[in-house]
Amino acid sequence: MAATIRDITKMTGLSLATVSKYLNGGNVLPQNRALIENAIEELQYEVNEVARGLAKNCTKTVGVLIHNLDNIFAGSVIANIEDILRQHDYGTIVCDCRGDIELEEQEIKFLLSKRVDGIITIPTSGNSFYLNNAVIREVPIVLIDRTFEDRNFDCVIVDNIEASVQAVTTLINKGHSKIGIICGDDNEYTARKRLAGYYKSLEANNIKIELNYVKRGSLTVEHGYHATKELLTVSNRPTALYLSNYEITLGAIIAINELGVNFPEDISIIGFDNLMLSKIVKPTLWTIVQPMEEIAASAANLMLKRLNKSETGEAVRVNLSTGLLTGESIKQLS
Amino acid sequence: MAATIRDITKMTGLSLATVSKYLNGGNVLPQNRALIENAIEELQYEVNEVARGLAKNCTKTVGVLIHNLDNIFAGSVIANIEDILRQHDYGTIVCDCRGDIELEEQEIKFLLSKRVDGIITIPTSGNSFYLNNAVIREVPIVLIDRTFEDRNFDCVIVDNIEASVQAVTTLINKGHSKIGIICGDDNEYTARKRLAGYYKSLEANNIKIELNYVKRGSLTVEHGYHATKELLTVSNRPTALYLSNYEITLGAIIAINELGVNFPEDISIIGFDNLMLSKIVKPTLWTIVQPMEEIAASAANLMLKRLNKSETGEAVRVNLSTGLLTGESIKQLS
DNA sequence: GTGAAAGCGCTAACAG
DNA sequence: CTGTTAGCGCTTTCAC
Questions:
Q1: Residue extents of the structural domains in chain A
Q2: Mean pLDDT, to the nearest integer, of A308-325?
Q3: Could you give the C-alpha distances from B19 to A110, B34, B50, B104, in angstroms and in order?
């Protein structure tokens, strides 16, 4: 059995209160301080955070709930959040709900029963109903990647429509009008927005929308790969492709290479998030990049502010912009 | 403030013990059961797991500590572990130590102060010193991916030497003797083993080892990419490449495609772990696969057994074998 | 600055 | 089956 604070009182002859005060950074006579520190060393004492959590009604942990852990975006965001939180002595309980709405609701219950001090989440569900209990208990919540229409929450998002506009406009400015898009399907919030941005910029430039240039599917390498092969063999094939997420970009590159098609000569492309590819592929890739670390940092810091009450106002909405990484993968059409 | 068990006693007129018994699955008179269930519904009561944890001296959470969260292997293993544990009512506190030994030690302290019931970890450190406190407190530990020489722990590993032997022997059986390897560097446990397996099978077949066929580096796409380019331009270039990890395989494929080199005609390759690639690349890829879900399941189940004391003996060592996925990426030399 | 005592929400004997 | 009671390990008044 691990040593308790009581063992320290016995060893030092001091009282519970004094030792506790020391542990919480209070003032103690130098001689007593020495006694306590010695005892702690001797006994290998470490605070029992469970007991402390009960006494203080706060656990110094935040729950992070996402749709899928084995995914680059989520993995990297979580790793960074965890990092920052830890530096402020907060632990992180990670749950992944596998894109399942029922599980998502259960996981929130689970996190609440663990009495997390706050919840950071990339929502799966389309409405915020599943967060009711957390709201009632006044557990701070920070949303990442999306918001809800039905209620305001703190959130950290990027403007996905604008990201697409950036990408597509870049292509248009280089003379392209036959532009394909490979994207997720309509029940994905970010996919919907990105597709909307694609439509928006085509319309703004009076370019007719070709429905067979739009390849909806899953957000996977497979979809990127197959959709690219299809788009490259379609009659009246597009001159440029907008690859609207990390995995899709990867799949597309593999398909293009495999077909022996060259970019930018035969096809122009602009990718998404795939820094790894943009760094190593030759010719280099034009890429839309989400500020993943900034997203993580904003979410973590916003949460920290809610936790230490330095932010108490209305729901704050952090809007980050995507960046545009220039490359050589887009051909200038005359 | 959330409702407590005491609120339920007031509402039902029953005692603490009865309600507690109900909550823990004990027998209660039907009428009382109804009363309690009604009160729970009414009050939106949920067990405070922190209080329960203190009373029971067990928290129903296990800590998972790994070197790097934004990595396919770790991400996918953790996602699966979390899944299984959750189904048994265990939560998961995830920490990533960024491959830093000092952080690793701190994280263990952190997990212990949170009183996790068990720890599952992919070790970073070369010795088990940092686990001392956990051992003393008799917190069950399950290692993944590697073991220590200095002390026996429960562990779930694959035979990395054998994996390499499988890969290299496959190449040799198809008539290759000029075989390159791209791998991690010597301070990576698994990389060392995989390289050792490479040497082993060459020696077993009396094939002379060419040191410039061995490309050590980081376990990254970049390394796979650049090393491949180097190996393909070296004089007396190898006829086959063994790509000894996921990221390296990905980088190599990109490099090969980019160079306009064809496999298996111009170069034979066998990859590692990259199921995604082996599924979508044409010609299909020969691939060594680690049973990631099985690794996760074994680790989680072993932990569960330790936790419920159904396994109490000596350290158990689960040895899983890698599989060989056949493909078309290896040319038969006459 | 220190100590005594009550309490955080729950569990677990032990009687009844 | 139910109720009483005494903790689990720590924090936090409130006197001294």
A1: 5-47, 58-158+292-321, 160-290
A2: 94
A3: 20, 11, 18, 42
Residue A334 has pLDDT above 90, yes or no: no
Q: Sheet containing A91-96: give its strands across.
A: A317-320, A154-158, A141-144, A118-121, A61-66, A91-96, B91-96, B61-66, B118-121, B141-144, B154-158, B317-320
**What pLDDT was estimated at residue B69?**
82
Point out the residue among A46, A92, A277 whose CB comes nearest to the CB of B112: A46
CA distances from B27 to B11, B18, B122, B147, B239 (A): 20, 9, 42, 45, 71
pLDDT in tens, B40-51: 999 999 999 999
pLDDT tens per residue across span A38-66: 999 999 999 999 999 999 999 999 999 99
| A323 Cβ neighbours under 8 A, 6+ residues apart | A288, A289, A291
Same CATH fold, B160-290 and B58-158+292-321?
yes
A70 interfaces chain B, CB cutoff of 8 Å? yes
Please say whether the structural domain B160-290 has been given the CATH code 3.40.50.2300. Answer: yes
Alpha-carbon distance of A66 to B86, in angstroms, equals 15
The string of pLDDT tens digits covering residues A257-302 is 888 899 999 999 999 998 888 877 888 999 999 999 999 999 999 9
CATH 3.40.50.2300 fits B58-158+292-321, yes or no: yes
User: Distance between alpha carbon B259 and the CA centroid of its chain, in Å?
Assistant: 34
Q: What sign for the dihedral angle of Cα B223, A82, B136, B121?
A: negative
Give the model confidence (pLDDT) of B141-196 as tens digits. 999 999 998 899 999 999 999 999 999 999 999 999 999 999 999 988 999 999 99
Nucleotide D5 C1' to residue B47 CA (A)? 21
List the beta bridge partners of residue A156: A144, A318
Kindly state the greatest CA–CA separation across chain A: 88
Chain B 114-133, residues with CB within 8 Å of chain A CB atoms: 114-115, 133
Q: How far does the CA of residue A72 sit from the closest CA of chain B (Å)?
A: 6
